[in-house]
Amino acid sequence: MPLPAKAFQRWLHGVAPDASVADVARASGVKRTTLAQQLVRGKVAEATVVGISRAFNINPVAALGSFEPYRDLGKPPIPPTLQELVSQIATADLLHAIISRTEPDAGTGKGTGPPGLSAPPHATSVKNWVDAIDDGELRHRVSTATGVAPQNYSAQLTANRLAPELAVATSRAAGVGLASGLVAAGLVTEAEAGWPPGARQAALDSMTDGELTVLAGERLQALGKTLRRQEHDQRQTETIWENLG
Fold first, then answer.
1. Exposure winner among 5, 93, 94, 210, fewest CB in 10 A?
2. Does the structural domain 3-74 have CATH classification 1.10.260?
3. How confident is the model at residue 113 (pLDDT cuts 50, 70, 90)?
């Protein structure tokens, strides 16, 4: 849900009262033409607010909370659940952890240990996050609350993206921290959302070897299905082109 340009301009005047559009674009990395087009159309993307907020050392989540559609983001953050934290650990990092734990020197302090966790988002971060907080009725509640058709919502999850307003609506429907979905979608960082430092690593360390292995296996199985579907689609496309040729 793009933000009204008038509300954005009021916010921007409070943030950088003496800055021109060119100054703001240069400082934030947002293209000047992009910002100008959004202002002309009367709709400013949330990502634009996030980029400008970072440039002026303002927390992006708090900045979004300045706008009516995201007013609740201004409230104190709710810590992420263990399931949410684990959902934001990439599959490759899970595999690194398994290998590290099974090395001969594991637990002795002599091993090299796994590399640091990669930052969200990862290839399936959005769907993993929704699955982690879904009680079986979450998708239905989100669809009812937002008016977004279930198939359109599912399409976004499959594409590993989630519009900011849907991310917040999903968090609200699940009763979790409102900024968590913005982390999964890659709009804001863990720190910007108020997640404790090292929380994902702590969640990973708390998993037993069995839990870690089962989760990695489930992720790999899902990845295998996706790859097989893509390969099937590619073969069909090639067949069509061959028949046309």
1. 210
2. yes
3. low
